[in-house]
Amino acid sequence: MDGQKNRLSKGSVVYQIFLRSFTLDGTLAAAEQLLPHIASLGVDVVYLCPVVLADGDERREFWSERQRQSGMENPKNPYRLSDYFAIDPEYGTDEDLRNFVRTAHQCKLRVLLDLVYFHCGPAARCLEEHPDFVKRDENGNPVNGRWHFPQLNFDNPELREYLWSNMEYFLREFDVDGYRCDVSGAVPLDFWEEGRRRMERWKPASLLLAESESTPVEDQKSAFDANYSFAFSFLLNDILKGEKTAEEFWTMWEEHPLYHEPGLCFLRCFDNHDIASDNYDARPERNGRNAMVDAALAVLFTMNGVPFLYNGQEVADGRRHSLFSNRFTGKNLVVDWARGLTPAGEGRMQLIRELVQLRRDSRALQSGEVVEVDNSTPKQVLSYLRRTPEESLLVAVNLSAAPAETEFSVPGVKERATLPPGGWIVQSL
Fold first, then answer.
1. Is residue 129 domain-resident?
2. How far is CA 276 from the centre of its chain?
3. Strand partners of residue 87
4. Residue 4 belongs to a domain
5. Residues 336, 398 within the same domain
6. CATH number of the domain that 402 lies in?
7. Does a structural domain hold residue 228?
8. Does residue 373 share a domain with residue 305?
9. Is 6 a domain residue?
10. Where are the beta strands (DSSP E) in 88-158?
């Protein structure tokens, strides 16, 4: 990246906290108490879903389809904002955020906030003084985007200055370490590039993550440290649901050649606030496929890119989560932390710690090339090499619910393995 002073480490692990479902209280203060636990997993970056004031407008024409269908009857969508500078009382106070960041830093965790700059709420406070901050049609009505929220107008230089000052504000006043940028591809790239320059005046080592995978080569030149990998996430979920097989991974891989472009960085996940909220019945933990989830985690930590864990994934949580439920409205849907005391939860936490250490001990797993390896059971087993000039590792993961007796075709080497459902190996060659 041109001018980038500190990229997201290839040894990093990102953990997403969605406050509404993270604890029974749903607050920053309650989440702060769990930061030592998160750090104990080997995580080094925590990303918070939006904590600024959400728009409580009750007009349903300004609710997203997901919001209406959730049945929670909560007008406050955390991704439909009213005030970009005010902490929502639902989550706490300014001092609560400062305390959260301070404790995170003591635990050697960097903290990212969520920027939602594609759209705002219909009753956003800034629109009272700046009605031209949103796009308008020929009749002067706001132009609503994909989720029925007014789209921000990036042709307006005053809006840009307002949002750049917002990016600077949380770095300066709260000592956060950067941002995850919601729907980043719908915002002009030159806005993010200038925002990055301004961020670095306050914190040269700040991070910026893009929720987009459409233009990672351009994104990562001077704006972003990493992009999301949606096709990767969706395919892993389809495999976990039994709708696709491991064999289809390489088809996806070839259709997205930038996934293995040297120098580019992608976040790797198969669960997050969107997936957990929209696909409750299909969540693998809910359907008793814990071994399959273990296998998918092995892929996240041995494939190139940066692993991205979600809210309670480390205790094999399978409860329903919802973007639109909190302790005031709808059902209070929270992580089942008691799962951490069960064999499944204890095993999951141990697995994540082992995977973190395995990856941090291996340069090949952090930054080596990915080479497809043929095997005799391709519908079940995903196999590949991670390779640098100094180290070569064979990785094999059984992504099926049946045992696999398989042979690998590695140049100059013949290997055989018996993998139980969800079983995996990492072997030096």
1. yes
2. 12
3. 52
4. no
5. no
6. 2.60.40.1180
7. yes
8. no
9. no
10. 110-115
Question: Which of 258, 200, 266 has the alpha carbon at shortest distance from 229?
Answer: 266
**What's 50's domain CATH number?**
3.20.20.80
pLDDT at 288: 61
Q: How many domains does the chain have?
A: 2
Amino acid at 267: L
Q: Beta-carbon neighbour count of residue 182 at 10 Å?
A: 20
Position 409 scores a pLDDT of: 87
DSSP H/E element including 98: helix 94-106
- 257 pLDDT band, cuts 50/70/90, is confident
Domain boundary, last residue among 361, 379, 404: 361
- The distance of Cα 359 from the centroid of its chain, to the nearest Å, equals 19
Q: 123 is in which domain, residue-wise?
A: 14-361
DSSP code, position 285: T
Q: Provide the strand spans (E) within 55-168.
A: 81-87, 110-115
The encoded tokens of residue 296 equal 């998918």
Phi and psi at residue 40, to the nearest 5°: -65, -20
Q: Are 173 and 272 found together in one domain?
A: yes
Evaluate if pTM is beyond 0.85.
yes
Residue pair 225/8 in contact by the 8 Å Cβ criterion: yes
pLDDT of residue 316: 93
Same domain, 348 and 377: no
Say which DSSP state 361 is in. Answer: T
Neighbours of 176 (CB within 10 A): 25
Report the distance separating Cα 236 and Cα 243, nearest Å: 10
250 contacts 384 by C-beta, under 8 angstroms: no
Do the beta carbons of residue 331 and residue 20 sit within 8 Å? no
228: three-class secondary structure by DSSP: strand
Segment 412-429 mean pLDDT: 88
